[in-house]
Amino acid sequence: MSDDMVDAPHQQYAPGRVGVPEAAARTGHTAEGGGHAEAVLLDVRELHEGRAGHASRAVHLPLSALAAGAPVPDAAQGAPLIVICRSGNRARQAAALLAERGADAVDVTGGMRDRADAGLPVVGAYGGDGSVS
To answer: pTM of this prediction?
Structure first.
């Protein structure tokens, strides 16, 4: 083995970040309610937060479960993932964990708060209007 073929140090993949408009377009979660979904919206908030208000068709996997080793739900397996939480911090952590596992994952800056502020629907546990807690 030559000196120029020394093993490179392990490189940490830093997942990308997207804003609410790009996340909505890529997941088909637009204000009009339709659109082509090329990615899955993965909500990593805790269950009680999702019950208060979530994006319709979002797949739920709390960061606490993901960090404990839980797999990505079947509905999101093999798809590009757009990871969202309340404000963006937990989504960033989750996207990094997912990227370490080989997933194509980016997080949404501003999270559900910015999504709601952009006028995108937030659905409550029983289908009515929800809120971001």
So the answer is: 0.84
CA–CA distance, 98 with 90 (Å, rounded to integer) = 12
DSSP character for 39? S
Residue that wins the pLDDT comparison between 47 and 133: 47
pLDDT in tens, 117-130: 999 999 998 888 99
Residue 48 half-sphere exposure toward CB, CA atoms < 13 A: 1
Q: What SS3 state is found at 31?
A: coil
SS3 90: helix
Greatest Cα pair distance, the chain, in angstroms, is: 65
Radius of gyration of the chain (CA): 16
Candidates 106, 96, 131; CA nearest to 27 is 106
